[in-house]
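Final report, closing paragraph on structural work. Over the funding period we assembled a curated collection of sequence-structure pairs, and we close with a single example.
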Amino acid sequence: FEYLRLTSLGVIGALVKNDEEEVIKFLLSTEIIPLSLRIMEQGSELSKTVATFILQKILTDDTGLAYVCQTYERFSHVAMILGKMVINLAKEPSPRLLKHVGKMVINLAKEPSPRLLKHVVRCYSRLSDNNRALQALVQCLPDQLKDDTFKNLLEEDRSIKTYWKALMRNLPLQALVQCLPDQLKDDTFKNLLEEDRSIKTYWKALMRNLHLPCDI
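Its predicted structure, as stored:
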């Protein structure tokens, strides 16, 4: 059974490797995401690696990212599995698994694998490109990705550090957006902003930095 599963995953992995949008759209019409998540949680090391790679490639596509983040249920399921993988990798680290996404961060903390961590961080970074997912990541991102647990690996591998930095840049912005008073985001101070150009200049700079509308 494991051989058949690996063979099937290998075929799907080959299909998504070239980042063709039509392939992703077709796969989204199937049960590939829940099946991949199940394998990521319960399969052999090699099966987990290929299944995580497939999920990563789906998330890389805009249509795939939008699909996963369309409902909280879909996103939370993906985030839960990724989180578990991080925890498990911290206990029994695997170089192959480190290459892909989420349940792995906590497990990678003890004896992290650069290859697996790279894919995990890349998945999280891609999820942070979606505003709805980013709101949830502010609360559920593993602490090991926010402290200095992987400091040495980040210094040694520039590609991991690049995706990690992108993720870290998005997180504080979203946290600020959540606590910013609504009055600064709506038209409460519209008249004042029109009357005082200096205030309006600073306000526009703030809105741009937070990726919020700055037209009033």
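The chain has a mean pLDDT of 81. Residues 180-216 form one domain. We thank the funder for supporting this effort.
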